[in-house]
Amino acid sequence: MSADSGRPPLAVRAAALTLHHLHVVRPGALTTVQDAGRPGRAHLGVGRAGALDAPAARLANRLVGNPPDAAVLETTLTGCAVRPDRPVVAVVGGAGCRVTVDGRPVAWGAPVRVPAGAVLDAGPAGTGLRSYLAFAGGLVPDPVLGSRSTDLLSGLGPAPLSAGDELPLGDASAGGEPPAAGPVPWPGAPAELVLPVRPGPRDDWFTEAALRTFLTAAYRVSPDSNRIGLRTEGPPLERSRTEELPSEGMVLGAIQVPPDGRPVVFLNDHPTTGGYPVVGVVLEQALAAAAQAAPGTRLRFVRG
Q1: Which of 68, 173, 246, 297 is 20 to 30 A from 19 (CA-CA)?
Q2: In angstroms, what CA-CA distances link 112 with 76, 99, 176?
Q3: Residue 139 DSSP one-character state
Q4: Among positive and negative, which fits the CA dihedral 196, 198, 202, 207?
């Protein structure tokens, strides 16, 4: 800042004046800004956050020439619609859905050019649950603790989108060249979700019958699931110990068993501590499929 005026230099003011934005036309049921998250801050009580289907977010970024950790939009079930105030190359991937630009159908899962003032609409998920919208240059709201991700539990990061919101767009020229056009192998939504599990640390708090049930029974994904945890419907797990467990650290993929006995798989916005016993931990590489498992999807836990 100059000493006499207390105002930022002219070049900084000019950059702020020329910043471009996405205008939110339709926010959908739950649309958030996500990047690679805030790993390594659990000792501060701060969870990871970040895109639940990280491979889908990275692939969408690659297709528009962004770094893999650039911020994108993550939608839930009903999609969203946005309008850029500058021309932008965008990709809609993750959950399969109808994509339009000003009502005209365009490609899903591949780069499309969105003119300034046109509405890019990612429709409701036809397969899967969460779509990812990447824009050349990325989204650049102010970072919090090194990430632009929304964390629903802690409230860190940008608020979930509402109609009329504006999100700043990054400089597309700062990224790389998008890859050549061609078929892209987007993973499909799971017809059955199979989650490999490593037992413990509190599997000894459950009966032998409960542990057999846990690894053999058919569960379903509950509609009460969210970014904090994937809740299940199915047979409850009986505890062998009834005393209270002091709060202890929780990790991504931890399977906590609350008093109703039905397992809950902790996802990216999970609390960093908890007082219910953890019967096992899902291997992290399996959690991307969990992000796309719609309510009612058949679910099995298997020993990993």
Answers
A1: 68
A2: 21, 10, 16
A3: B
A4: positive
